[in-house]
Amino acid sequence: MDVVVKRRAAAFVCRSCTRRSQKQLQLQPRLRLRRSYSSAPPGPDIYDVVCVGGGPAGLSLLTALRANPATAHLRTALVEAQDLSKLRSWKLPLDRFSNRCSSLTPSSALFLDKIGAWGHLERSRVQPYQEMQVWDGVTGARIEFDWASGTPPPAGTTIAYMVENLNLTSGLLRRLDELGGVSVFDNAKVEDISFGEETEELDLREWPVVHLTGGNQLSARLLVGADGANSPVRSFAGIEARGWDYGRHGVVASLQLEGEGWGGDQTKVAYQRFLPTGPVAILPLPGNLSTLVWSTTPANASLLKSLSPRDFIAMVNAAFRLGPTDLAFMHSQSSGQDLEYSWRLEHTPFNSRAVPQTVAVVQEGTIASFPLKMRHADTYVGERVALVGDAAHTIHPLAGQGLNQGQGDVQSLASTIEYAVSHGQDIGVRMSLEPYVSERYLANHVLMGVCDKLHKLYSVESGPLVSLRSFGLNAMNSFGPLKTFLMNQAAGHGTKVF
Amino acid sequence: MRPSLLLPKHTPTLLRQQQQQQNVSRGVFGCTVAAREQGHHPHHHQQLQLHTAATSTTSSSSTSSVNADEISHFSALASSWWDPHGPSRPLHLMNPLRHDFIADCLASSPEAATPLSPPAAAGTQTRGLRYLDVGCGGGIFAESAARRPGTHSVTAIDPSATILGVARQHARRDPTLTTGTPAEPKLQYLNASIETLPLPAAPERLFDVVTLFEVVEHVDRPAAFLDACGWFVRPGGWLVLSTIARTWTSWLTTNVLAEDVLRVVPRGTHDWRKYINADELRAHFEDGARPVVMGVVYVPGLGWKKVGGSEKLGNYFFAVQKRDVVRDRQNKINRNWGVRL
Prior knowledge:
Chain A: One of its GO terms (cellular component) is extrinsic component of mitochondrial inner membrane. The structure holds 2 protein chains of 2 kinds. By secondary structure, chain A is an alpha+beta fold.
């Protein structure tokens, strides 16, 4: 019986061992019989990496591991609550865009290209942009991030790529399907996470076992929590996530503007205006389409969602053109914003080329909102546990860095695992995972702190802080080298500071 | 005990033995396969079968390199061996460098690095590396070597039964380590010293890599110990070790700072007088191929870093390849033919 137990254990570890033991079992039919007649319930399946969550972070982690010859032999499993076949067959016409878009930095795009996923995205739905216009809604102080004021880097003038989250995840899934070898458990909820057991041969009391709906049990050398802000994996590991709610909601929508933008098809511009209630941004999509991200109070958000399309469009156009007082009044109206906007606009001087082109259409059914939070887990690892993406941190969307932070985590964790494998380390133990934490924790913390402080700085409506921040923004705008540096930071090339 | 101020005049253990052993054939790495087959090793006549834990006992014979005080010191540390923040943390941190060093050594002579298949087995698949880890302790290196891609098997020996108990228990936590065949498990721990371990009779059962990590500074009679370890290396294989140079710096860092001031290493772990310098090892293996030496420095907070030349200061890796007389002869013939053609 010893031999049988040993073979079973071996079979769970790697494909070559599995093949070998299957061969041995075929040679000895007696052993196989004994196994099949066993009345004991089947024990958990043993995996090297079990990833809970099939979002951008989880999918790109598994893709990175499978695409790398050094880690491709690892036994991996993906657990996802949604039905992945819907994601596989995701398709939209080119004039319709999903309302959940992210800004992918060139370094994230480079990583996705390295793991072979970038080519699987619908490229006609990906929009690079080359300039940013950011201004203060109270004072009008402005910073223009365009390469004309500094030297464009050799890596290209793209600051970031606007990508629909679904385009990214479905592309990653296509790449993962192409690579194969991952046991996929979709439509499956995590019912419980417990610890393994001790047998005569093995002591798996420190190995997490994921119990799924339907009875599957997955034993994990390394359990990866890519399972979002309310991560069950994080709770299992007893890791606290600390932070605060901003008391703000992010309102999103897919918009059609009256043209391709002031820079035409070649130079796309992202616009962000800091209002006292929070920043509002219009980010370019292909053609005359754009995506809206408007952080505002929950009351304003629910008003915006209740408006007619005409009034909603008027509010968005007003948000980039009218003063905070005008906006506050328009938020108090239950309807009629369209009329209100047109007469107030006549009395508001502004440079039309310094704001996005006028919004003409809001795509039906794309207006939605979600609460904004700031959360940071105390650590990203525990014994046989690692957290990536939103499970580890949730950031204010004002700099569009959330998804990129997740990709940065994945890149770091995948290379940590590669190093551990090539040096014979057990990839699940905390010691092997330490480099991942030391590489990512502080970098994420600094970026989250910066975004948090920016949000708070621009929430102030009057007082010395307002003139100080305007002075700072204007000073930065006239100082080319600093701007080039900041643009490089945003784009993720140049010397890494954040 | 602390070294006196007469530091440079201290006669190192290794040299003292070398002086005593001048008449004994020195440096197994210069000896031929024929010499080994004539039975220089005391255990040559034993069966190929290796000791099992139950039958072997800690040797107390006069030929043993095992020091009873060292055994009791390390046995007392057994429970904390695998605590990543315990006293063995520096060893855990050093472990990846050991693999890098071995990989560098193997890469330095690629044609000899692949195990030479015996003529009978010609045409069969190249197997992975076979390791012998001498003084394996809790198994930090042995486990990692067994897990590495490209490893066939690891045999790990230690004279302390207490520590081996910890090693065996810990290996049960990883299913990968319980693979292999009953005849040759992936990872096998044996309670033995190098002197009590039987030398395999069949040359193909010798080891590709024999490792002694942080061991030579803890044994009695290091010269004889190194020679005994050398018998287990296959021709063309490598003897790899790491140890500490006997210098003012190493006395200050490993004894005073690490043990007494910072207390990152348990007191009594190191006896400075037993440290061996790289030059002494070079002299010991003078008949062998050119040794590979790499100095490493521990930077608190950052871990171990390779620093060229630092083998003259403190911790260093040392490796020497065993001469492969058969292959050398074959290469010579090939060369001669090449010239004639």
